Amino acid sequence: MTTDVIPVLHVADAAIAAGWYARIGFEVEFEHRFEPHLPAYVGLRREGARIHLSEHAGDARPDTLVYVWVDAVEAIAAEFGVAMEQAPWGNEVSLTDPDANRLRIAEPLSDPDVDDRLGSGTSARLTALEHAMWADETRGDRRWMDAHLTDDFVEFGYSGRTWTRADILEQEIGAIEASLSGITVRAVGRDGALVTYISEQSRGAANRASLWHRVNGHWLLAFHQGTPIG
Questions:
Q1: What domains lie within the chain, and their CATH numbers?
Q2: Nearest to 187 by CA among 214, 224, 153
Q3: What pLDDT shows up at residue 1?
Q4: Could you tell me which residue, 172 or 50, shows the higher pLDDT?
C-alpha cells in the first residue's frame, strides 16, 4: 500500500533553501551527507507533508512544480507579499524558491471528503476500528489492544477517570453492551482523523470523540473521551 509520495527538489545550497521553506512552515526533519565535504540531502516536514532538498547533481532539476495543500494560505500570502487567486477548488498563491523551483500553495474552498484526504476506504476502516474498540472479542484481547493504541494513549472516561495505555491493557474487560450512532469521520491533517459519535448504554448516553493517528500505514488510537449527555 502506498503511504506517502515525497517530491525531491534540486537546490544549490540546502541551508539557504531550508531557511526559505521555513517561511511557509516547513521544518528540517533530517540532514544527510555521505562525507562532511559531499553534497547535502535534507528532509523537510510541515505536519504530514514532506519535501526533500538535494544538492546532488543527478537529483531532479530546476523549474519543477509542487502543489501543496494547507489549512490557511492567507498567512503565506502575507509573508511573501503576494496576492491570492481563486480557483474553482481553492485559494492559491504561486511562489518560486531561491533555486527556481515553483510551488503552488492552496487552501481548499470546502473540506474534501475524508477518503480523498486520507485515502480510499479510510472512513470505513476507522468506523470498523471504533466498533472494534467496543467489541468483546477485540477490546478484551490484550494483544489486539496493544497493537491499536499509541504509546501515549489517554482516555477521559465517562466517569471522569483518566485512563492511560497501561490502565487499558491491565484492566479486566467484561461484556460491554452498547450501541453506537451518528458516527462521523473527519480528517485532521494528513495522518490524523477525528471520529465522533453517540454511545447508548444502560448507564446512559454519551458523546464520544476518538483521535486516530496513522503510523507507518496503521491506524492507532491516540485519545478518547466520553462525556455524559444530560
A1: 8-108 (3.10.180.10), 114-228 (3.10.450.50)
A2: 214
A3: 40
A4: 50
